[in-house]
Each structure stands twice: as C-alpha cells, then as structure tokens.
C-alpha cells in the first residue's frame, strides 16, 4: 500500500473503512427531547472547563431515530445534552451518548469526539405515546414518554401559516463535545473542545406535549448522575439535516503548553 493511498483513506481499517468521508446527510431524522431541571452541582461536574453552565439548570435528554443516514445506515441513539456557555456564546454540550450501530460510533468518536458507547436505545410510537427507551448491558436505564403530537409547533393557529424558524434555530445551534484521544504512549494526543453546526435543515414536522422521564442508576451508563428534579416538557420533530465537519473551540494541550512557556 502506497503512502498516497494511505492518505486518501477515510477511516480505519484500511481493508474496509468503518465510514466514508463526510459530510453526512440524514433524512427523516426524528428527535424526542425531554427538557428537565437538574441539580446545578451535577451540571457543573459534567461540564468540562472552560465551558460554563448557562444558569437555567436545564438538561436535555434526547432520543433520536436515524432511518436514512449517509455512510452510517439505520440506527437509533440517545443521550444527555447540557445547555452551556463559552465566552458568552450559548451552545450545547453533549455529555453522554448511547447507540446501536458501529460506523457512527467509530466516526463520531474519531472525527467530532462524540461520547458514544454501544447500547440498545429505541424510539417508537406505542398507541398514543411517543416512547424512548435505553437498555445497557441488559438493564433499562432510561424511559421517556410524551403525548403523541399534542401541539403543532409549526402551525400558527391564527393565520394557518407554518413557521419553522424556531426549530431550525435550535437545530443549527452550536454543539460541542469533549474530544479525547490518547497517543500510542498512553499520553493525551488530542484533548479538545470541538464545535460544529448542523446545516441544510428542512423541518418536516414539530410538536410539543406533556412528557415524563425516568432514569435508573447504572455504573456504565450513568445518565441518572444528572437527576430529574422537574420535567419542563417534551418536543418531537422530524427533519432532514446535514452533519458537516467541525472546528476546534479550545485546545487543552496547546493551552497547557502556553502556560508552561509563560510560567503561569
């Protein structure tokens, strides 16, 4: 295998790449998000510096179905997202993620630093209830439920016109991850806060309704470490969306090197 060939490979293993080169298009991507109030100390502990809590004490628990994802296929994921701030900018930090498909686990961790682990999440409609579940190592650790399509968020009841601006704004908000990749010597090779923004968003439907969330402590899926103090509500939307490559927001190794140079 020649050097030129190696440098054009999109991912490992060389014999059969885990995922192709991006960007990645998602068709009919379906979100179920429970917004809840949690413990401020737990939120602070889950947010890596220099990110800061946004002061709301809110946490977003997400279930996402991706039936048509370029390069990744058909899969479901779930996890915890924390609204935060960096240098005054409002953004979201992805704290935990669990999914059932190998290519997006590999690609998500290697490219953007998504904190993905293999598990068994599901999102389905059970009679009148939108239902999200997470099982890890054979045990249920999360159950989210929402009344199915109670309030249409896109339809203006006064004019009958549809409005997608608010949902597009939420989906295009800056998202961040803590990307940690060790070198072959075991020392950190990459330690960064990375950021990205979804693009080419087409919203196909959006609804709100009453919701509940139950989290069960588990050592290897510690979603319950951010406890549910009060559920604010649930949202459900479907969109086509593109995940592009991202950018480095903060580099821990570069910052540590600069501090050593200045002696601070």
Gyration radius, rounded: 19 Å
CATH topology: Acetoacetate decarboxylase-like
Q: How much β-strand is present in the residues?
A: over 45%
Number of DSSP strands? 16
Structural class: alpha+beta
Instruction: Outline the low-pLDDT stretches.
Output: none
* Percentage of residues in helical conformation: 10-25%
SSE order, one letter for each helix or strand: HEHEEEEHEEEEEHEEEEEEH
CATH superfamily: Acetoacetate decarboxylase-like
Shape: globular
Into how many domains do the coordinates divide?
1
| Biggest β-sheet description | 12 strands, mixed
End-to-end Cα distance: 47 Å
Q: Describe it for me?
A:
- The chain is α+β, with helices and mostly antiparallel strands and 264 residues long.
- It has one domain (17-262): Acetoacetate decarboxylase-like, CATH 2.40.400.10.
- The chain is built from five helices and 16 strands.
- Strands 1, 2, 3, 4, 5, 6, 10, 11, 12, 13, 15 and 16 form a twelve-stranded mixed sheet that branches. A four-stranded antiparallel sheet has the order 7-8-9-14, with no helix packed on it.
- Strand 8 and strand 9 form a beta hairpin.
- The radius of gyration is 19 Å and the shape is globular.
- The N and C termini lie far apart (47 Å).
């Amino acid at each position: 295998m020649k050097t030129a060939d190696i440098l054009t490979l999109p991912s490992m293993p060389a014999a059969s790449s885990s995922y192709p080169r991006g960007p990645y298009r998602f068709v009919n991507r379906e979100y179920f998000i429970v917004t809840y109030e949690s413990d401020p100390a737990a939120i602070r502990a889950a947010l890596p510096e220099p990110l800061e809590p946004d002061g709301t004490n809110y946490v977003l628990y997400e279930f996402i179905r991706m039936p048509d994802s370029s390069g990744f296929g058909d899969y479901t994921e779930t996890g915890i997202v924390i609204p935060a701030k960096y240098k005054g900018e409002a953004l979201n930090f992805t704290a935990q993620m669990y999914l059932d498909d190998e290519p997006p686990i590999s690609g998500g961790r290697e490219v953007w630093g998504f904190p993905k682990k293999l598990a068994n999440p599901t999102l389905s409609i059970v009679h009148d209830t939108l239902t999200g579940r997470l099982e890890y190592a054979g045990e249920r650790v999360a159950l989210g439920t929402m009344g199915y399509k109670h309030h249409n968020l896109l339809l203006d009841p006064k004019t009958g016109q549809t409005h997608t601006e608010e949902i597009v704004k939420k989906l295009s908000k800056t998202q961040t991850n803590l990307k940690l990749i060790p070198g072959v010597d075991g020392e950190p090779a990459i330690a960064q806060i990375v950021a990205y923004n979804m693009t080419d968003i087409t919203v196909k439907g959006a609804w709100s309704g009453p919701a509940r969330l139950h989290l069960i402590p588990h050592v290897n899926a510690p979603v319950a470490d951010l406890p549910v103090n009060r559920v604010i509500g649930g949202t459900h939307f479907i969109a086509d969306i593109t995940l592009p490559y991202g950018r480095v927001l903060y580099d821990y190794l570069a910052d540590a090197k600069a501090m050593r140079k200045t002696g601070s």
